[in-house]
């Protein structure tokens, strides 16, 4: 029997709950009566509740995020019906900004807002000693980083073999981009480098090879970034793979030199461009040198084998279809492997909420609180861009249509792909559950019938991509064409990234 269960619902099994491991690492003597149990949002609330209650806990701590708040609400309701005496404590970003709180907070006994490593321990100590805390809303107390116990030893063999190991060399962010909760941070604070690298070495020796850094600004302190990259270069093998979130306009020569030494497909950079529009950047307090961003993205593509996952956000205050098209076209010209088209979401506590009235920002009332319309973007156009984003992920980001994509985009990428997106939706009625072979055939029909691409040219590029995808059978337009088996390139990158080679 464990007195305390720490749990959450991850988006997918491959994700590991880094925050829970930090909470567990800092429970001191309470660790002996605590267990971490992770689930996914795809499991039923009844099955999850059964597994939690099998531990016979007195306290259940649950991490709540924008991607799992609906499922957590259902789970908490079930737990309280079955075991009303169970003490449920919520924490995480989705419940950390009172009075703007989701309904699940009314079902819980306590809510810890903000940092939880110390506050959750203090709360559990009181509860297990049969003391009643004065407030059910508990403000989290931040602990100086050197005083935090490390979570990395709590990645077990299953995590290391089958999950992503999340790590952080620094915490916080010095920038104030209003769409992001990190805008509430005062600055970025680094962990002591020597101790951090010792922890990374321990993980590596245990077999960890997939490291995802959650630092908001990995390349903020170049000396530290170079030291971390050198550490992994010295341990480079056929399986090592690193993911970093980087600032797009900060790529000095020292950093460039070490990046050039990495083998292809061992680095993934998540690069938040968000918008190239200077007026919107100023409006949302985003400091970004657009010219340096362009130069750095171009340099990374030309001189490194890093996989570039770039981000744009649609629906920001002041956004229109026209200025978003300009940002998209500029980014396409820089040729990153992926462009993630994010739709603005209302994050609780984010400073961008101050623009809601002036720009008539209208959000979905249910998670993930995506924007529905603005002063300058109609609901109809927002729906079109939502579909655009989904089809772009299937066609542009997947790498399946690498040969075909330039023909689709031509010299007006946003305009032509929006036309393709509209026509695909009219033909299929869906952006989901389209078989890949059927998608190739639909794209052919739209290229020829709507984009007016030459039929033979369309067949040629689509056939080459179809063969690269190693799909079986023939496409409807090539029943008499001979097939020659082709394979995608080799490399450590995952299958999606190999398609971009």
UniProtKB/TrEMBL annotation:
Superkingdom in the source lineage: Bacteria
Keywords carried by this UniProt record: Iron, Iron-sulfur, Metal-binding, S-adenosyl-L-methionine
Ranges where the Radical SAM core domain occurs: 159-384
Cofactor(s) demanded: [4Fe-4S] cluster
GO cellular component: cytosol
Gene Ontology molecular function: any one: metal ion binding
Matching InterPro entries: BchE-like, Cobalamin-bd, Cobalamin-bd_sf, DUF4080, Elp3/MiaA/NifB-like_rSAM, rSAM, rSAM_horseshoe, rSAM_sf
Domain B12-binding: 2-134
Protein name (record): B12-binding domain-containing radical SAM protein
Native source species: Leucothrix pacifica
């Amino acid at each position: 029997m464990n007195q305390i269960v720490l749990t959450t619902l991850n988006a997918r099994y491959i994700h590991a709950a880094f925050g829970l491991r930090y909470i567990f690492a800092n429970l001191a003597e309470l660790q002996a009566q605590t267990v971490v149990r992770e689930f996914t949002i795809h499991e039923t609330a009844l099955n999850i509740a059964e597994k939690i209650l099998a531990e016979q806990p007195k306290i259940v701590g649950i991490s709540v995020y924008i991607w799992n708040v609906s499922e957590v609400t259902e789970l908490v309701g079930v737990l309280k019906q079955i075991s009303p005496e169970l003490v449920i404590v919520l924490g995480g970003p989705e419940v950390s900004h009172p009075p703007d709180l989701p309904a699940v907070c009314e079902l819980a006994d306590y809510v810890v807002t903000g940092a939880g490593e110390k506050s959750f321990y203090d709360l559990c100590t009181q509860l297990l000693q049969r003391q009643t805390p004065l407030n059910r809303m508990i403000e989290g107390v931040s602990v100086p980083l050197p005083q935090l116990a490390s979570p990395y030893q709590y990645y077990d063999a299953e995590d290391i073999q089958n999950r992503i190991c999340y790590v952080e060399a620094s915490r916080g962010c010095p920038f104030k981009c209003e769409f992001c909760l990190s805008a509430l941070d005062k600055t970025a604070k680094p962990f002591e480098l020597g101790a951090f690298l010792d922890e990374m070495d321990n993980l590596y020796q245990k077999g960890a090879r997939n490291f995802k850094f959650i630092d908001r600004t990995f390349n903020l302190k170049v000396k530290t970034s170079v030291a971390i990259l050198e550490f992994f270069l010295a341990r480079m093998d056929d399986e090592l793979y690193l993911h970093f979130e980087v600032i797009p306009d900060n790529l000095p020569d020292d950093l460039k030199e070490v990046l050039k030494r990495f083998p292809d497909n061992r680095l993934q950079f998540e690069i938040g461009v968000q918008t190239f529009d200077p007026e919107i950047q100023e409006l949302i307090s985003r400091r970004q040198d657009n010219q340096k961003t362009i130069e750095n993205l171009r340099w990374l593509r030309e001189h490194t084998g890093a996989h570039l996952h770039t981000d744009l956000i649609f629906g920001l205050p002041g956004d229109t279809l026209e200025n978003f098209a300009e940002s998209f076209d500029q980014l396409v010209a820089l040729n990153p492997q992926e462009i993630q088209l994010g739709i603005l979401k209302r994050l609780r506590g984010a400073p961008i909420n101050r623009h809601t009235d002036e720009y008539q920002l209208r959000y979905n009332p249910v998670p993930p609180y995506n924007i529905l319309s603005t002063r300058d973007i109609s609901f109809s156009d927002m729906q079109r861009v939502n579909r655009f984003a989904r089809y772009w992920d299937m066609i542009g980001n997947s790498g399946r249509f690498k040969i075909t994509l330039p023909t689709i985009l031509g010299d007006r990428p946003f305009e032509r792909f929006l036309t393709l997106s509209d026509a695909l939706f009219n033909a299929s009625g869906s952006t989901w559950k389209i078989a890949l072979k059927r998608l190739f055939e639909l794209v052919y029909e739209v290229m020829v019938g709507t984009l007016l691409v030459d039929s033979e040219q369309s067949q040629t590029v689509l056939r080459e991509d179809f063969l690269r995808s190693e799909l079986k059978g023939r496409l409807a337009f090539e029943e008499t064409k001979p097939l020659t088996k082709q394979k995608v390139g080799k490399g450590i990158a995952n299958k999606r990234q190999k398609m971009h080679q």
